[in-house]
Write a structure and sequence with these properties.
This protein is mainly α. It contains 18 helices and no strands.
């Protein structure tokens, strides 16, 4: 399968990249600006007991819809699902701003989350498809910077808009950004680019995945361990359901690839360690350290800043160093950062922020290296769903980490003495997860090559041009019997 690099003209690629970056901005800002506006929303609409549900349903629908959007884009091409996803997101944003009670807001946020799952997945799928490795690393660096800046300025922007205008304007802020992203991507991406037109979505598999995934995330959210175990068992049965489908939702054969299995496990462990700990760091700053909410929030800034800077650097280093080295380096930084914080939990505030920088830098290295390399190894007609599964594994890991660390801390979260005793244990647990992540890096060495496979049917119309053979566009054959002789290590990825 040829890349779309030559199907998308340079001037179109510039528009496409701008649209994708605006799409990243759209989702990144929505995850931060709304939190600042919610107290004012509760004051106007009431329903304080429902405070967390707009966030919960947004994240739930975003997490579960990602693989569905990814698979739809694999079947029908990226352009139409992307436009639908942005349209749903904007409709949800408009309805959220016009909400007249909390139930309406929850329903609108759920709709917005359905669109966000597609926008998040397809943004990076488009970049993975339309750029060769060397250029994709540069674009991914831009995306990391935009995401980091959005996370940093989002709370401040949300507060200012709420104070100066209204909390409704916080939701409506997304409308011009989304329209611009929709028009740029819709006009730049080739209309004829598609893979299996006429193929139908695997509806039984999609329903099975959505229901079992919703049960899993709800069980983790509410600490219902019996429901969580049953949901996990149902998810593990999905390959049996998919085995008889001509075009399954989740390509079961792809899990024969050792690198993909290692990548998903690495994202799961990284999400468990990082997002599980992050959920309780502001609590630590306010209750145990006696800081204000704003000062406690500063403990999160080094983590997001370290992730942003390290992710931008990792995207540039990946073609030279390869995934294995970057994942091992990142996992080592995660272990060192969490271990040092556990040992120095009563150290000055600045020392704890330095530990946060190490943790964020490690996560940036690991997540970017795994994402780009997994995309490079995926078949093109499965690129969307594989990209979505990476995010799904990371989000489920974060939910699992939050639930386990909440159980580790116990019920007395607001007792200073209790928190001083238990929080270092939480950090030590996160460090152990980092060690497991370092061990998983060994599974990234295998026969997987560094580019996606030829399509089993035919290249999409409009994908023209040829590329000189090199390590970055060698065919990746998912069946072991049809692969070339395995290489001893995945190694550095050659830039085209």
């Amino acid at each position: 399968m040829e890349s779309l690099v030559y199907a998308v003209k340079p001037e179109r690629r510039a528009r496409l990249t701008t649209g994708v970056i605006l799409g990243v901005l759209l989702v990144a800002l929505e995850g931060t600006v709304v939190a600042t506006a919610m107290p004012r929303v509760i004051r106007d609409l009431g329903g304080a007991e429902l405070y967390s549900l707009p966030f919960t349903f947004y994240l739930l629908s975003m997490t579960l819809s990602g693989p569905l959007w990814g698979r739809l884009s694999d079947l029908w091409g990226r352009r139409t699902p992307y436009c639908w996803a942005v349209g749903l997101f904007l409709l949800g944003s408009a309805l959220s701003g016009a909400s007249w009670d909390m139930m309406t807001l929850i329903a609108a946020r759920t709709l917005q989350g359905l669109g966000a799952g597609g926008v998040q997945t397809l943004n990076l799928t488009l970049i993975g498809e339309c750029y060769p490795m060397a250029e994709r690393a540069r674009v991914q660096a831009y995306i990391s910077v935009v995401w980091g800046l959005s996370s940093a300025i989002g709370p401040l922007a949300g507060g200012l808009i709420t104070d100066v205008l209204s909390w409704r304007a916080v939701f409506w802020l997304a409308l011009p950004v989304g329209v611009a992203a929709l028009s740029l991507v819709g006009s730049a991406y080739p209309r004829s680019a598609g893979y299996r037109r006429g193929s139908r979505l695997d509806v039984p598999g999609a329903l099975w995945f959505a229901c079992s995934g919703a049960m899993l995330l709800y069980g983790l959210e509410r600490h219902l361990w019996g429901l969580t175990g049953a949901a996990a068992a149902l998810l593990l049965m999905l390959p049996c359901i998919e085995a008889h489908q001509p075009v399954p939702l989740v390509p079961v054969h792809a899990f024969r690839d050792r690198f993909l299995r290692g990548s998903l496990l690495g994202n799961y462990l990284g999400g468990m360690a990082f997002f599980g700990a992050v959920a309780f760091i502001p609590l630590w700053g306010q209750v145990a350290l006696g800081r204000s909410a704003a000062e406690a929030g500063l403990l999160l800034t080094p983590l997001s800043g370290g992730w942003t800077l390290s992710g931008a650097l990792a995207a540039r280093w990946l073609p030279r160093w390869g995934a294995v080295r970057l994942v091992r380096l990142g996992a080592a930084l995660i272990v060192i950062g969490f271990s040092a914080w556990a040992a120095l939990s009563r150290a000055p505030f600045g020392v704890q922020m330095l530990c946060g920088i190490l943790i964020g830098a490690g996560m940036g290295q690991v997540m970017i290296a795994l994402l780009i390399s997994t995309q490079e190894a995926a078949r093109r007609d499965e690129l969307g769903v594989i990209t979505a599964l990476v995010f799904f594994a990371r989000n489920v890991g974060g939910a699992m980490g939050t639930a386990l660390m909440s159980a580790l801390l116990g019920q007395a979260l607001f007792e200073v003495r209790h928190l001083l005793e238990r929080f270092p244990l939480l950090l030590a647990f996160a460090a152990c997860l980092g060690l497991l992540l370092w061990g998983v890096s060994g599974s990234l060495q295998g026969p997987a090559t560094n580019a996606r496979a030829p399509d089993p049917e035919q290249a999409p119309q409009g994908a023209t041009g040829s590329r000189a053979p090199n390590a970055a566009n060698a065919p990746h054959l998912p069946n072991a019997e049809s692969r070339p002789a395995p290489a001893p290590d995945r190694g550095p990825i050659e830039a085209p």
